[in-house]
Amino acid sequence: MTTHQYINSSSSFRLVYFLVIGSLVVWSAEGGHRKEQARDRIVKLPGQPRNVKFSQYSGYITVEAKAGRALFYWLTEAPAKSRPEKKPLVLWLNGGPGCSSIAYGASEEVGPFRVREDGKSLRLNPYAWNQEANLLFLDSPAGVGFSYSNTSSDIYTAGDKRTAEDAYTFLMKWLERFPNYKHRPFYIAGESYAGHYIPELSQVIVHRNEGVKNPVLNFKGFLVSPNSLNMPYISFITLIPSFTFL
């Protein structure tokens, strides 16, 4: 074998090697998020009616490993017949501060289920927002609902800014678990003290997306009840492509 042939063979081997390694990395990442989705998949809730035509997921995303802060979510997708892959993603936040988005927003306001009078079974909510969008309910900040922190002081030192940063971290990590929602039109909605949370989080997203041509978090706007809005953020609203009052 000539030197030229040896170099070509060696280069070809390295190319094949890197292609194989690259494919394994991609395959591992693909398999990783699919396993995480499968782990979070809700097959059936206790007392759930039979005629449920949409997919549900719930689980935890760690937002601060050192402190052990993790936020709990519940995703209720749009019905299969309405092509959920074409629907936007809406993050719902309740306020309080201290009100669970699962206990209130999902269970008593815009979620797909209502608890029947027997306290054991569920019925479908005909006015659920997931008929028009994929709904992501988030218990935020840590210490609210099912969200937690392993650092006790977190409960007493939480503030709007850290809540916004944790929510942003949650969203970016959640999109790694659900990459099918990357670049999807994204909105934030809520009421009560979420009138503070939502503008803070919106501002973080807008600033992080500056200069990014095709952001994975494709933020389009937010919706919040008028009497809930934190007024100092009125001037910031002009930075958001769309804004709607409920």
TrEMBL record:
Among InterPro entries, the record links this protein to:
AB_hydrolase_fold, Peptidase_S10, Ser_caboxypep_ser_AS
The main location class comes to: secreted
Q: At the top level of its lineage, which domain of life is listed?
A: Eukaryota
Main EC class the enzyme belongs to: hydrolase
Q: Which UniProt keywords apply?
A: Carboxypeptidase, Hydrolase, Membrane, Protease, Secreted, Transmembrane, Transmembrane helix
Give the matching PROSITE patterns: CARBOXYPEPT_SER_SER
Q: Which GO terms describe its molecular function?
A: serine-type carboxypeptidase activity
Entry's localization field: Secreted
Q: Where are the transmembrane segments?
A: 12-29
Task: Write the Enzyme Commission number(s) for this entry.
Answer: 3.4.16.-
Q: What Gene Ontology cellular-component terms does the record carry?
A: extracellular region; vacuole
Q: Does the keyword Transferase apply?
A: no
GO annotations under biological process? proteolysis
Q: Which family does it belong to?
A: Belongs to the peptidase S10 family.
In Swiss-Prot or TrEMBL terms, this protein is called Carboxypeptidase
